[in-house]
Amino acid sequence: MDDSILLTIKDMLNIDAGITDFDNDLIVLINSSLSTLHQLGIGDAQFRITGNDEPWSQLLGDKDNYLESAKELVYLDVKIVFDPPTSSIVMEAYKELRQEQQWRIA
Fold it and tell me: Which of 102, 78, 75, 80 is nearest to 91 (CA)?
């Protein structure tokens, strides 16, 4: 659970860890998603990532049972904006998965 949040999301987006060209964009989108997680009861309101140094354990604290749900929600939030699918059917599926994860976390 000590994996870097940024590196995990980059891996899920199939972006090599050594490629840093998109890091600033990804960090903004990830932090936005972390705000959503906080509203759902996960993480501190002040928690933000600034690079590769922030692990999931720092975000989740004692709520480590939400690890996979948190990863999926952050991934979907970032994917929908950063690398949206060309198919509207796939986009709707992503949005439905996102809503389901939010419901399960809440």
Answer: 80
**Are 5 and 30 spatial neighbours (Cβ–Cβ below 8 Å)?**
yes
Residue partners of 41: CB distance under 8 A and separation at least 6: 105, 106
Cβ neighbours of residue 19 closer than 8 Å, sequence gap 6 or more: 10
What are 4's strand-pairing partners? 55
SS3 55: strand
C-alpha triplet 36, 73, 47: angle, nearest 5°:
45
Report yes or no on whether pTM surpasses 0.85: yes
Q: Please compute the mean of the pLDDT values over residues 88-92 and round it to a whole number.
A: 97
